[in-house]
Specification:
Oligomer: single chain
Number of helices: 14
Membrane topology: Multi-pass membrane protein
Main location: membrane
Subcellular location: Membrane
Order of helices and strands: HHHHHHHHHHHHHH
Helix content: over 70%
GO biological process, one term: cell surface receptor signaling pathway
Radius of gyration: 22 Å
Protein name: G-protein coupled receptors family 2 profile 2 domain-containing protein
Length: 319
């Protein structure tokens, strides 16, 4: 977990043990959720389209970020540095991949470009290159004699400033970019939907509801990063103002919500209609028909029309 070194200073041994448990449990959930999306991408060839490939890279970054959060809290040595830097690298990569997804939707829907797949090498250079540069800069001000039991953040004013600039600065930049981008995409598609409804009869209005429901979910995507890191940001600012006074409940919220970022991303970005449809198709092929007859209606596989996603309509069809 990114924040644990700074959080642990000024807390009792019992508090630190509790925070460790919260971090390990939440990171395990994120690891499982992200790993599920990675596994789906590997197993289901139908999902290997460009739009979901970006989700795969996001899930992979989340999975590795969560893994290094679970590894533990080594007190000294090179392993501690490796754990801290690896966690920083993959967590930064995670929120940078969300900006590539937002950019892809904007370029496809708003600008009507069909060349997004050609930009994949640039996306990799942008995400992994930026993550590496920020991780290297993060080493500035690091004091190896004050590692303590956590390996994420540096001690001292200079180290705290560098950590804030190399993580929270880019993080909130990504949040603002995603929010502005999704606002433009949603506004344009809402306008297009209203025009389509105005030119169609009432039966077509009913058919458009699943797509509008999927569209409205996009507005919640920027809230994932805000919900995951708002308490961490507040905690870091408080640490600047009162470094000797730690607020335990704020530290709990900080650790818990940040460690759940991978789980939130896997649910919002990964577990969409395409994934559910692929799973249902495999279950239908493996399970006898008599099994499906006994299942409730909401558990039975639905048709592709019922499971439509605007991502598929607007991005994948243009590949």
């Amino acid at each position: 977990m990114i924040e644990m070194k700074a959080i642990s200073d000024g807390l009792t041994a019992s508090d630190r043990h509790f925070l460790t448990s919260i971090n390990s449990g939440a990171s395990s959930l994120s690891f499982a959720g992200s790993g599920f999306i990675v596994l789906c991408y590997i197993l289901f060839k139908d999902l290997r389209k460009f739009s979901f490939k970006l989700v795969f890279y996001l899930a992979l970054s989340d999975m590795l970020c969560s893994f290094f959060g679970i590894v533990g809290d080594p007190s000294k040595g090179y392993f501690c540095h490796a754990q801290g830097y690896s966690t920083h690298f993959f967590c930064v990569a995670s929120f940078l991949w969300t900006t590539t997804i937002a950019f892809t939707l904007h370029r496809t829907v708003v600008r009507h470009k069909t060349d997004v797949e050609d930009l994949e090498p640039m996306f990799h250079l942008y995400v992994w290159g930026t993550s590496l540069v920020l991780t290297v800069i993060r080493s500035i001000g690091n004091d190896p004699s004050h590692l303590g039991v956590w390996c994420w953040t540096q001690t001292g004013f200079a180290g705290k400033v560098v950590h804030f600039l190399t993580f929270y600065g880019p993080l909130w930049g990504a949040i603002l970019f995603n929010g502005f981008t999704y606002f433009q995409v949603i506004r344009m598609l809402n306008n297009a939907a209203r025009m389509a409804v105005g030119m169609s009869d009432r039966s077509h209005q009913f058919d458009a509801r699943p797509d509008m429901k999927a569209l409205n979910r996009w507005g919640y995507y920027p809230l994932i990063l805000i919900g995951s890191w708002a308490f961490g940001t507040i905690n870091r600012i408080h640490d600047f103002i009162e470094p000797e006074h730690k607020i335990f409940w704020l530290s709990v919220l900080d650790v818990g919500t940040a460690a759940l970022m991978g789980l939130f991303n896997s649910i919002a970005y990964g577990f969409n209609a395409s994934v559910r449809r692929a799973i249902h198709e495999r279950l239908v092929a493996w399970c006898p028909d008599r099994v499906w007859r006994w299942l409730p209606a909401y558990m039975k596989p639905r048709s592709q029309a019922q499971e439509s996603e605007l991502v598929s309509l607007k991005v994948e069809d243009q590949q």
